[in-house]
Amino acid sequence: MAQIISFSDFMQQKDFFVEEAIKEKIFIYPTDTIYGIGAVANEENILKISQIKKREIKKLISIIVPDFNYSSLVEGCKKYHISQDVLQEQLAKYHGVTWIFSENEPGMRILKHDFQQFVKVLNLPFLTTSVNLSGNIPATSIDTVEKSIFEQVDYCIDA
User: Fold this and answer.
1) Sign of the dihedral defined by the CA atoms of residues 74, 95, 63, 135, in that order
2) Taking CA 33 as the corner, what is the angle to CA 121 and CA 77, rounded to the nearest 5 degrees?
3) What does the alpha-carbon distance between residue 142 and residue 46 come to, in Å, rounded to a whole number?
4) What predicted TM-score, i.e. pTM, was given to this entire model?
5) What are phi and psi of 47, to 5 degrees?
6) Beta-sheet strands, E only, within the chain
7) Assign residue 55 a region: left if phi > 0, alpha if psi is -120 to 50, beta otherwise?
8) pLDDT digits (tens, 9 = 90+) for 14-46
């Protein structure tokens, strides 16, 4: 069962939660638009989250990258001739932006939400997908997170 923590407490204790993330804990967290479910990006956590959401394992899960200097983001920009300025302009216009360079690679996301600062401190790519059973409506508050999901994660950050 998820431990609920306020967003302000989460940010005040972010070093502790960085360690928890490294230990492969699963989080429900606020994003720029809806609540997400995620963890440090690795194959085991992709499998866990896919099982929790009852979604196909083959379906790619996007990642929140620490910042614009994340190596895969920089490489994607070079490969597809996109300038960093263009990406930063898009982020300035929208709530958050996901860049998809190839349909065979996960989208790389930067949030316009303070949760992005946690990922920056973590300095690892962080899985991000909506917190709902596959095909259902995404949660816009922790009150609307399905109980079956809530029972299978470690932390729920309440904004």
Assistant:
1) negative
2) 60
3) 22
4) 0.93
5) -60, -45
6) 3-6, 27-30, 35-38, 62-64, 96-99, 108-111, 126-130, 155-158
7) beta
8) 999 999 999 999 999 999 889 999 999 999 999
